[in-house]
């Protein structure tokens, strides 16, 4: 130890305090390395469950891109000198299989953390288990409001815009462009639908109530069509239609609005803006629909020179050439892998689960390569809302025209 020559009577403890707080960085003693299960001097082990098989298997690409990204990092020396062992397991979008795979990752593989797992129902099935074990469940590919509950479930954080965030921003847009709007709403009769409905209506009420919901219609997933609900809404006098639906019901409702000759301002939940849904509805019928956007898309000319898109394309061509270059789900997986890598990098030599959670929950301001410029993560230890600023976009019949400025909830 180098003593302070002017105060030789200082205790060793006092000297250590002074050295750690005042000396230049090269002279500060290295922090003690700390490890939980899944971490060591040479390795960091992390996991994930996504559907590599079954009806949701198109999302398996999230795992394949994660494998590619961490392989690339490992070839460059890993993270803080440690190689990342990433285990992406198949849950077939089944809650029981998700439980089985998650338990294996935690109890047999002993991963440090999980990230990027998919689906509200499967992840709900392991929500309490992972929190009881103190295992980080990060960057979930679901936007359900339940994931923002740091007081009761501090180990779980969503990775997508929360449904209430999306609803509030769409409501603010309606108030701005149609302050006297008469709004008709179709919503799925479950927690998904209600996650959008309540926050949307509250923004309208807080704005003074001039823009009002004049009719609500619900549907159940088991219903073959939503035609009768759309007929009722079209006759209500509504000049705004908020379509809180998924899958087949989204395509049917967009097509039915056109068939009825009803011409409201249409709002659509972002999860239903995929090209397969719009193609089934008829792209011409979807023209003019408004939805939120927060991410870039690969495979489109306007993004091909974007540095983040180019970096993803380089990774894809080298490590996963079987993945199509326009696969935006793969690009989303890349963005989340980069983000998880950043969380681990910030952990330094304190690779405990508590520190992984600390770094994830203080990620506010970090910009994923998947995000549009102007969008960053907004996590804080008290508020796990992944992002609070999004863009309004309008479908042109071919592409989404993104607004110049983002909106905040």
Structural description of this entry:
Residues 1-30 have low confidence and may be disordered. This protein has helices spanning 12-22, 61-75, 95-108, 120-133, 163-177, 191-206, 227-234, 247-259, 275-281, 283-286, 307-319, 328-347, 353-360, and strands spanning 34-35, 43-50, 83-90, 113-115, 137-140, 156-158, 182-188, 212-219, 240-244, 265-268, 290-293, 350-351, 389-395, 400-402, 407-408. The strands form four sheets. Strands 3-2-4-5-6 form a five-stranded parallel sheet, with helices on both faces. It has a four-stranded parallel sheet with strand order 8-7-9-10, with helices on both faces. It folds into two domains: 35-161 and 302-387, Response regulator (Rossmann fold); 164-293, Rossmann fold. It contains 13 helices and 15 strands. The chain is an alpha/beta fold and 409 residues long. The relative contact order is 0.12. The longest helix has 20 residues, at 328-347.
